[in-house]
Design a protein that fits this description.
This protein is an alpha+beta fold. Among the domains are: 2-199, no CATH class; 228-271; 356-412, no CATH class. It has 13 helices and 18 strands. Strand 1 and strand 2 (8-11) form a beta hairpin. The longest helix has 31 residues, at 311-341. It is flat. It starts with a strand and ends in a 25-residue tail after the last strand. 22% of the residues are buried.
């Protein structure tokens, strides 16, 4: 077994390995976090694969993961005077990993979207940081949550035990790894150490939606206006029974709804009326969509449920989606990457930023009006606006401006005139300057 602490590694023989696994003061909290299937009260098994077969779950996971993954990400340095500039891929190995290639065969978009997909569904997502001899990060390798167990020692040191079988196709050496070498993106957490797997904790929400979908599919597959009983005189022999069964089966299904079958031999059909509304199939499926959207904190219009959407409120809902749904994940990613990929010295003046302005392009006019109002009212300076927009400062941009036609209101309610600016010129303003004499060439 190999225990890794930062850039150091220790190998133990069998005796040491046995003692380490049985007597080390470690308490595992990972057991409930690497179990990703559960049986719901509806009787079906909820796993990542079965949950993603629900269109609402698939659309939600895809929207959140891809909307964050498509945003520009970079490593920035803040100078002592407050200026910020983005480091190029030649200046920063971290920038190269996040902008070009985290590892062979993996692009940054897939890294971020995979981490988010795992974190949303399973509560935890992991990536191993590959470092060079100088302890600089040179690669990021995805780790399947199924192969990770979290251990916490009595001194609150967090260690990750990784199985050799990574499940994601990337080979991973089995052993214990320091938290400094593991990117850990968590969902909702009750202890700040591990996220809770929603597939287990909310299995009844997913299971109910799956049961509703299965019922609807079965209803439309078997449902027909022929639903009812058949009455015949006497007893049918085997050929007659098969002929009648085949005839009825040919008329079953939603595509044949409304057609009239031919019944032979005095057979009487006694219909039992039922339709989709009476069975509440559609209502139950709509409720399932709302439940999933509520759990995963996504506006309904983002998963194509436009029943209550209007042109006037979708723009505001998009802003809510960015602020309430995406921003928490973005903040988690930025803080986790900064904590694990940058050294303690770099963390003092370096940071990792995911720029959400790409998602706000449709509302740039409102943002421009907002900053213009604050700027012209003297609330903020040009440099403060540029800093908020992640732009560098400009010379002379720290001054505050106000309109010239504004005055101060005194305590008595009267306007206080602005102070007069004395002229520094020595020319008498009452005299007209004499014209200069024309000169001949």
């Amino acid at each position: 077994m190999e225990i890794r602490i930062g850039k150091y590694s220790f190998n133990f023989g069998k005796a040491h390995e046995e003692r380490a696994s049985t007597k080390m003061p470690l308490n595992s909290i990972g057991q409930p976090t690497n179990i990703f299937s559960s049986i719901s009260d509806a009787g079906n098994t909820v796993t990542q694969q079965t949950a993603l077969r629900l269109s609402a779950v698939y659309a939600t996971v895809r929207n959140i993961s891809e909307d964050v993954a498509k945003l520009p990400i970079g490593v920035f340095k803040q100078d002592p005077d407050g200026d910020k500039h983005e480091l190029s891929i030649e200046e920063s190995k971290v920038a190269y990993l996040l902008k070009v290639r985290p590892m062979r065969g993996l692009i940054p978009f897939d890294l971020i979207s995979s981490l988010l997909s795992q974190a949303i569904l399973k509560g935890n997502a992991y990536a191993y940081i590959i470092r060079d001899e100088y302890y600089q990060p040179i690669g990021l390798k995805l780790i399947a949550p199924e192969s990770v167990t979290i251990w916490v020692s009595q001194d609150d040191t967090i260690t990750y035990q990784v199985l050799g079988n990574n499940f994601l196709g990337y080979w991973m050496e089995e052993g214990f790894y320091s938290s400094d070498d593991i990117i850990h993106l968590k969902g909702i957490s009750l202890d700040s150490i591990a996220g809770i797997p929603l597939l287990v904790y909310l299995s009844n929400v997913y299971g109910g939606a799956m049961a509703s979908q299965d019922f609807a599919n079965s209803f439309y597959k078997n449902g027909t206006n022929l639903g009812g009983t058949l009455t015949v005189e006497g007893t049918l022999d085997e050929p007659a029974y098969k002929r009648l069964s085949d005839s009825i089966r040919n008329w079953a299904g939603a595509r044949n709804s409304g057609h009239t079958p031919i019944l032979e031999g005095g057979t009487k059909y006694n219909p039992i009326t039922i339709n989709a509304e009476q069975a509440q199939v559609l209502d139950s499926r709509k409720y399932s969509v709302i439940e999933i959207a509520r759990v995963l904190r996504i506006p309904l219009h983002k998963i194509q449920d436009l029943d209550k959407a209007t042109f006037s409120n979708i723009e505001e809902q998009n802003i809510d989606y960015i602020v309430d749904t995406l921003q928490p994940w973005i903040t988690k990613i930025e803080m986790e990457l900064k904590s694990k990929l940058l050294t303690e010295q770099q963390q003092k003046d370096h940071y990792i930023n995911i720029n959400v302005s790409e998602l706000l392009r449709g509302n740039q006019q409102a943002r421009a009006a907002f900053w213009h109002t604050l700027l012209t009212d003297g609330v903020v300076s040009i440099n403060e606006v540029r800093s908020a927009e992640n732009l560098n400062r400009v010379e002379g941009g720290d001054s505050l401006y106000k309109p010239l036609n504004m005055a101060i209101i005194g305590e008595d309610g009267q306007l206080i005139p602005p102070p007069r600016v004395e002229s520094t010129t020595t020319t008498d303003p009452t005299k007209t300057p004499e014209p200069k004499a024309a000169t001949k060439n």
